[in-house]
Amino acid sequence: MSLVDHLTELRRRLLISIVAVAAGAVVAFAAYNQILDFLIGPYCELPQPPRPPGPCSLFITDPLEGFATRLKVATYAGLFLASPVVLYQLWRFITPGLNPNEKRYAVPFVVSSIALFCLGVLIAKITFPRALDFLVGVGGPDITAIFSPSKYLRLITLMVVAFGVAFEFPVLLVFLQLAGVLSSRRLASWRRAAVVVIFVVAAVITPSQDPYSLLAMAGPMYVFYEGSILIGRLLKR
């Protein structure tokens, strides 16, 4: 294909992805109440106090914040709903440039990346209630938690993205071993240093900065580190 043909193909894939995201956002905009109820579930699980007495709800101080919150939720949910279509379009754009051997490795990498990201999202969802309880409770009994939608959604979104990206750690290590940059023997010799580095990195990238999220992220990352060593040895054989 010529450069113009490549750009034409890229434009086609981008247009399909944008339409898919827009369609997902429209669906999410219509199902906004159900999605928001799901997202504020961890906040509603907090006891009263520190949560204000009465029905569980978020509070706004800006007249435009309610509409902005609905747009944010629709956009995030639209990206999530359209992610299979977007990933498929990316795959269709890259595949013609790969030789059969590269395709043989690419499929497991893509599938494992998606699976690990989803696992990270699941761990973030399970961990977030404990993290929120710690963050609210550490302020003491004289503080009542009243959250605005924008800041609450930003925190839970950062948590999901941080865990999803962190759980791609073994994919990176296996790729570096296949590329010859690292070896399983060298990774095995770095075990002690890896434990310290993993916990430091987890402490830095965890948005909530609470011990529950730190352990929930660092623990699986070290397991992935050991797993990548084993996978590297198997691939070498």
Structure notes:
This protein is an all-alpha fold. The protein has one domain (3-236). It contains ten helices and no strands. Helix 5 (100-137) packs antiparallel against helix 10 and helix 9 crosses helix 10 (211-236). It is flat and about 60 Å long. It starts with a helix and ends with a helix.
Topology at a glance:
Layout: H1 3-30, H2 32-39, H3 41-44, H4 65-94, H5 100-137, H6 149-166, H7 169-178, H8 184-189, H9 191-205, H10 211-236
Query: Roughly how many Å apart are the termini?
Result: 37 Å
Helical region count? 10
- The gross shape turns out to be flat
H/E element string? HHHHHHHHHH
Low-confidence stretches: none
Class by helix and strand content?
mainly alpha
Summarize the structure.
This protein has helices spanning 3-30, 32-39, 41-44, 65-94, 100-137, 149-166, 169-178, 184-189, 191-205, 211-236. The protein is mostly helical. The chain starts with a helix and ends with a helix.
Labels describing this entry:
10 helices; 77% helix
